[in-house]
Design a protein that fits this description.
This protein is an alpha+beta fold. It is 38% helix and 26% strand. The strands form 2 sheets. The chain has a 5-stranded mixed beta sheet with strand order 3-2-1-5-8. A 5-stranded mixed beta sheet has the order 4-10-9-6-7. The relative contact order is 0.14. Bound molecules: copper (II) ion. Residues 131, 169, 204, 206, 208, 212, 215 line the site of copper (II) ion.
Length: 234
């Protein structure tokens, strides 16, 4: 009976989760790809460490098990320079290998430090994002405002200027990039490059009140022509 209840609650939970149309690690932009690669890379290092440790553990258990059952205390050895150096150097190496791509990606994707020229004539589209309990407003350069629906031109670089009208929210389109906090009184920016056409779900990723779960929006990445005609439609 207990097992049955457990399986029932598990299947209910899974069916609820499958209803979320939000997929992480399914990158559809250069920005998200860099982040996904970083996750897989650190995961790979973790798996190598895990396999090594478990292989050694099993080997030691097999090799040094008490075969005669006589409870002998093994020879006590104190200090082994070679081993101590090994287990000090290996973690330092692993952390360095992990730190280099992480720092590079973090700095290249952290546009807060950049000074954006709003009137620059490059291939950048600036969108003002206003979060409030419990909806999103997207304001485009020509003044067009769209609520809970975001349109993006595929071949342009997008810069979101994020600001909240009330509490702290978090802007998240998993397929296009990681979360960025949306704060009141302070603008955060976020850049997304080289997107693939398609429709992606976005949501608030910071608990912000009773209807937080409903604070979702749909992102349509469309061709540049389709974007221009949408943008200029009244
Ligand atoms: Cu929110």
């Amino acid at each position: 009976m207990r097992n049955f209840k457990f399986i029932l609650s598990l299947t209910t939970l899974i069916s609820f989760l499958s209803a979320c149309d939000i997929r992480v690690l399914n990158p559809k932009s250069e920005t998200a790809s860099t982040q996904t690669d970083l996750i897989y890379f650190s995961f790979m290092i973790m798996v190598i460490v895990l396999i090594t440790v478990f292989a050694m553990l099993f080997q030691f258990v097999r090799k040094y098990r008490d075969k005669n059952n006589n409870n002998d205390i093994p020879e006590q050895i104190k200090g082994n320079k070679k081993l101590e150096w090994t287990w000090t150097i290996i973690p330092i190496l692993l952390l360095t290998i992990l730190a280099v791509p992480t720092v590079l990606a973090t700095y290249s994707q952290s546009p807060n430090g950049k000074d954006y020229e709003r009137n620059s004539k490059d291939d950048t589209v600036h969108i003002q994002v206003e979060a409030e309990q419990f909806s999103w407003s997207f304001i485009y350069d020509n003044g067009k405002v769209s609520r809970d629906k975001l349109y993006l031109p595929k071949d342009k670089t997008i810069v979101f200027h994020l600001q909240s009208k009330d509490v702290i929210h978090s802007f998240w389109i998993p397929s296009l990039g990681g979360k960025v906090d949306v704060l009141p009184h302070k603008e955060n920016t976020m850049e997304i490059k080289n997107m693939v056409e398609g429709t992606y779900q976005g949501k608030c990723a910071e608990f912000c009140g009773t209807n937080h779960t409903r604070m979702r929006f749909t992102t349509h990445v469309v061709s540049d022509n389709a974007f221009s005609s949408w943008l200029n439609k009244k």
